[in-house]
Structure formats: structure tokens, C-alpha cells
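Hello Y.,

Per our agreement to keep a running log of every chain we model this quarter, I'm adding this entry. I've kept the format consistent with earlier entries: sequence first, then predicted structure.
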Amino acid sequence: MITSNVPEELRKNWLLHISGFLTWSIVTFLSLSRLDFNVEFFLKLAGFISFYLLFAKVVASKKGDHELRNKVIIICQLMIIMPLIYEDKYRVVAILLVLIATQLPSMFRRKHALVLMLVIAIVHFSLVFNGEFINTFFHVTIFFMLQIFGFSSIETILREERAKEELAAINQELLATRYMLKTSSQKQERLRISRDLHDVIGHQLTALSLNLEVASHKVPDEFKAMLQDNVKLAKTLLTDVRHVVKEMRDKEQFDLTASLYNLVNQLPDCQLTIESPLSINSLRLKQQLMFCLQEGISNALRHGKANQLTLSSEQNGKRLVIELIDNGCSFHTNKSAEFGSGLTGMQERLADFNGTVQLIGGPHGSTLQLRVEDCYD
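Predicted structure for the entry above:
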């Protein structure tokens, strides 16, 4: 399989990158074509090249990463472009302001971006004002509207992408929930059948066996052999029923590792790696851990946009530590998340086992840590 070294965001935004490059190339050519090879030429060339490299840096960066750095880069681009606009004799350099506007939706809210573009327009007006207010006003207004158009176009695209990601996350949650409900229904049905067999048929067979034992001592001798055969048959049938009930209840001791794999297999574009198998005897604890890990996987897919999950565990005496690591977008590096309804629900599930829950952000994802101090054997 052929792999590419081109960053994912650059591959997704290739049209924006190419159109930006062509626009920059034309503006640079028009601005420098009639200049002599002197200090002014090379200073402007350095300015145009620096602007484009900064633009490419922002376009190639992954969405949600380095927002503060990218905002600083935007300021640097403005500091480069404004002197070029002031020295522009052909009034074409202001086109590059549209490229700046296309970078704003991923870093600023609409209100803040509009304020910033308005400030840029005011500075632009002050730089190109030549005494003719009307002509300068319409000139700046045209470029301001182009900035609004570029900003709105990219904002719409990003909004659609977020909507698709949210829909995909909800769909994954529904698939996971459907699997859990199906599994839970199967277990409840097996438990109901096993209880009915034990409580109804088992008790009736026991009563039948006792009645046959009593009858065998009261009937004439010629019927005793037949009654003894019926007693043995009733006891054999009772033993078989108890064996079936035991097997059905043993199935409730589900394999937590296999259940997690089955759960993730229901989700598209998601992979789970279990580095160390979970060896837990308590059925109740396994059920609670399964619900906690299901919630953790769901949150990693929905909020962190993760697609790679790694599960590790460490047991020491009566202490169990489970870590679910994802490759999604981290909320904050090396800091614990505040408890919302999801983490609070996990904490409540593990409270009977003296357990704690913690969600820690990292440079390449987040780690859900479940600690159980005792009562899992």
C-alpha cells in the first residue's frame, strides 16, 4: 500500500492551498515585474515569500492544533502585508488580505473575526487614502467584501465538516449502544430462563421425586420396581435440569476482553489494541467496567475524534489499574478533565469497589484511568 508523506490537512485542503499559491504568485509577479533589481525589489520579494510560507504553515497545520501559534502567525502576516500594501503602486497586494480571511474561521469565532477584518479594513483605508475619499472608500470596501466572502465560504465548509463529524460520532454511539442493549437483552433472557428452570421445573421435579419415593414404600411389591425406575428417571431429569441451569449461569461470566473487541468491531474506522488481558472474576465488577469503558470509548470517538484505542491493565494484589489511551484531540496536556455527567457516572459505578476515575490529557491524545482498590476477586 502506497503511503504519502504529505500532511493530512494539506491533502484535504489542497484546493485552498493551490488557489492561494496561484493568487500569491500572480500578485507577486504584478508587484515586482516593473521593479529594478535593487534593494526595494529584494525586500519586497522577501516579504512576499515570508507571507506565503506563513500562509502555508497555517493551511498545513492540523485543525485544532497550535491555535495560539497560528494566531501569532496571522499577526505576522498582517505586519508583512501592510507595508507591501502601502508601497503598492498597482493596488493588487490587498488581494492577499482575502487569503488571511480564509484562515480566520479555524481560529476565531465569527464575531471576533468580523471585528478583526473591520480593523484590517480601517488600517487598509488609512494606508491607501490619497485625498479622494469616495474612490478610496469603494476600493477598500470591495476588498473588505471579498474578505467576508472568503471567510464565509471557509466557515461554511468547516461547519459542514463539524456536522458530519458529529453525525458520525452519534452513529458510532448508536451502534455501540445497540450492541450493548442486544448483549444485555440476551443475558437477561438467559438469566430469566435459568431462573424459571430452577424455580419452577426444578422444584416440581424435586417434589415428584419425593412423592415417588413415598409411593414406592406403600404400593404392592409388583409395582415397586416400576416406581423405583420412575424415581431414578425423575432424579436424572432433575440432575440434567440443574446442569443446564449451571451452564446458562456460567455464560453470564462473560469475557471482558472479547466483549470489548466485539463492541469496537461494531464501530466503523475504529481499532482497539489490548496490551494486557483483563483477568477479573467478579461478574458485577466486569459489568461495571464494561459500562465505564464503553462510555470512555464513546467519548474518545465523539469529543476527541479518535480512531485508535489502546487498553492496558495492571494488577497488584487487590488493586487494579486500567488505562484506555486514545489518539484523539486532547483537551489540555497533562491536566485532568473536570467531571461531567460521563465521568461522574463512571465514578458512581465504581464506588462500591472503592474505585476512582481520572481523564488526563496528553500531547497526542487522552488517557482514561480506572482504579479499583479492592473487591474484584
